[in-house]
Amino acid sequence: MKKNITVIEGDGIGPEVTAQAVKVLDAVAARFGHHFQYRYAIMGACAIDQTGNPLPDATIEACIDSDAILFGAIGHPKYDNDPSAPVRPEQGLLKLRKTLGLYANIRPISAYPSLNHLSPLKAERLQNVDFVIYRELTGGIYFGKKTVNEAKTEASDDCVYTREEIERIAHPAFQHAQKRRKKLTLVDKANVMETSRLWRKVVQDLAPSYPDVTVDFLFVDNAAMQIVLNPAQFDVVLTENMFGDIISDEASVLSGSLGLLPSASIGKGTALFEPIHGSYPQAAGKDIANPLGSILSAAMLLDYFGMQEEARAVRNAVSWSLDESIVTQDIDPNHYHFTSTVGDIISDRIQNNVPRSVNRKNIIRLASTII
Ligand code: IPM
Ligand code: MG
Fold it and tell me: Of 218, 239, 255, which residue sits at a domain end?
């Protein structure tokens, strides 16, 4: 199969981790006889530096014109502490989501037993943790009217949702639940917010069409607590934009490393795949960031192309690398590999070039004292 992929490396560690995902896609192409063609485009702080615009038109055109987008990370510290910055890197990503109509952000959360010791939770709470968050991505408080008065003493952000916006993400969330453990949890704040009451009403109205799915409702404050107390209770979690942003970061650390988690943003236009982690500027250029979030995002991209066997090959190679401790610093601070080495070995593994049990002496092992 021939596919065009727009690669947006973005800021910070984005280029390094994305390069590993591209290597992995090339390995998949070689093994399964596909042809992936990449077109590189800019977005974020690097795009502001080069063009003054966090999302140049050429990037939008490249995205519209491709079969999928692989994205790295966005953000730079020089903007984080400057509330008066006229343009911000994140505006690029928000505009791209909105322009492409990517209203559903899908974030799978699972715990790897070999990493339980890194999780902030006790191992017994991590058993059977396997859920997926459906976060609404193009509405709510992120995109409502924003105001600030001239004296800059008062500001507002409107939160607006329509029935149609809720239905179009609720349907795929219900359908995904049907293929999983058949449970859907709506996270909202219906005891306080009108928009949340609308979410509840719409989900209640849709529920009879999915009689095999059990639906429950949690207020977001309780949900934040339940994710820590009993994360195994969740199957599919559906929620609005802002709550989804917050609880998905919370849930992402259950696995032991934020660096591991992928996501897919799907909707009307070209779908976008990106790791959940941010640009991690402190690590940029050091070849130490964890590439697994990006590599697993490439696996979600392959699923989206209907290449299930290929996606499985990537996930198997990732699980194998974790079992063999072929990992970056965040996972093993004492014995770790470079970002690029992990990418090389996983790509080799996909092409069956690495024997099942790696001869560890043949792999450059790095002690943390070297760097
Ligand atoms: C995310 C990020 C973005 C968001 C930022 C970078 C605008 O935190 O994808 O979760 O808030 O949606
Ligand atoms: Mg976020």
Answer: 255
In a domain, 265, yes or no: yes
Of all protein residues, the one whose alpha carbon is nearest to atom 12 of ligand 1 is 245
CA distance 102 to 336: 36
How do 104-110 and 130-136 pair as beta strands?
Answer: antiparallel
| Active-site annotation holds for 221 | yes
Is 89 among the domain residues?
A: yes
**How many Cβ atoms are within 10 Å of 367's Cβ, its own excluded?**
10
Ligand 1 nearest atom to the CA of residue 137, by list position: 12
What's the rounded Cα separation, in Å, for the pair 305 and 294? 17
Mean pLDDT, the chain cut into blocks of 10 residues (371 residues total): 98 98 98 98 97 97 98 93 88 97 97 90 94 98 97 98 98 98 98 98 98 98 97 98 96 89 97 95 96 98 98 96 94 95 97 65 42 26
Secondary structure of residue 171 in the 3-state scheme = helix
- 249 and 131 in a single domain? The answer is yes
Stated pTM of the model: 0.93
Reply yes or no on whether 38 is catalytic. Answer: no
Residues 163 and 266 in one domain: no
Atom of ligand 1 nearest to the CA of 97: 12
Ligand 1 neighbourhood includes 93 CB (under 6 angstroms)? yes
Does residue 61 belong to any structural domain of this protein? yes
User: How far apart are the C-alpha atoms of 368 and 366, rounded to whole Å?
Assistant: 6
